[in-house]
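Supplementary notes for students who missed Thursday's class. We covered one full example, reproduced here. Read the sequence, then the structure, then the short commentary at the end.
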Amino acid sequence: MRDLLRSDAKIALPTMFAAQSIMTMAAYAIPVVAPAAAPDIGIPTVYVGGFTSLVYLIAMIGGLFAGPLVIRFGTVRVMQTLLLFTAIGTAAFNLGTIATAVFCAIAIGMANGPMNPAGSHVLARTTPPRWRAFVFSAKQCATPMGGVLAGVVVPALLLAYDWKVAIGSVAVASVAVMMLIQPTRTRLDVDRDRTHPIGTGSFVKPLRIAVSRPDLRALAVMGFIYAGAQVTFASYFVVFLTERVALSIASAGLLYAIFSGCGIPIRLFWGIIAERVLSSRTILILTGVCMAIGFALTAQFESAWPFAALSAVTALLGLSANGWVGLFFSEIVRLVPDDQAGEASGGGQFFTYGGIMTMPLIFGGIVAGTGEYYWAFYLLAVLCFVGALQLLLTRPQPAPT
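Structure (token representation):
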């Protein structure tokens, strides 16, 4: 522990955590207010998946440029720029038109794209190798924290005022964090190179790394499925609970907060035992199995279910679907040379965002076509089991020197 506390990771981790929490809160806040905002904007709630897909279409492309952007401008400056995009996008959503909703999705996508690769770059550089699984998992606790904020703060403001005040709070928080992390730039952006080029080669290299070996390809497929399933569930959960399970928006928001909040302790737990008790790969396989069980149970939700039973299944999904991302990035970093950490993470993230972009549309299409949610949830269950199985059947290779 002393080597960790002596490193600059003690500065990098809270900085990345704060920025990522707010950017994730923005991405999750829109689906939470969708039942209230959709009538004013003039779109059916079932199309909320289209908003999520657009966010991650932009993000999956933007993430490929994260490596050279961070090298040229520094991680903190990049994060401040991403927070600015978040503030502008969420402020625009308040105008309440389809055009501004699309603009908001593009801005939030531009923010979320370089977020994880930038964090991987600075954490790989500042964290002692034996602490990487823990630090990466702790950093990824920012994602469920953003979900908790979206599930607790946003509904509370929505009920007390309206959905515009709820979304406006995200813009204010983005600007506040953007200013608060400025003092860390002196320590964390020391490795920036203002002459580093940014071109088409920067776009292709992360993808080449991500598919260069069978073990990396298996992680990419797993990331595509797990991330797509996780965000699809997050995007439709509140709408599903209010429309089909007949819960109030307050009760649905509480379940959403349980789903997101469970990700915080499980990420820390996995980060502590990863590579000490179980390998990160084994944990990722077990995660897929638990997600498959959770989605199959969710397909059976009915209004007659006790709230405690709904909460238990939601917690299972929170402990599985929200617990894998830090281990995913730490495993990618473990399999590549240190100087490729940011680019490899960007390449792996491309596939996770591909799943996030694609699977909400498929889920929404199934719901729109059948009028039911259970077939869509069963599909998520099958895909998660397949993702775990193909990872189990692929052997990891040592990182090239």
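Commentary. DSSP finds 20 helices and no strands in the chain. The mean pLDDT is 86. If anything here is unclear, bring it to office hours.
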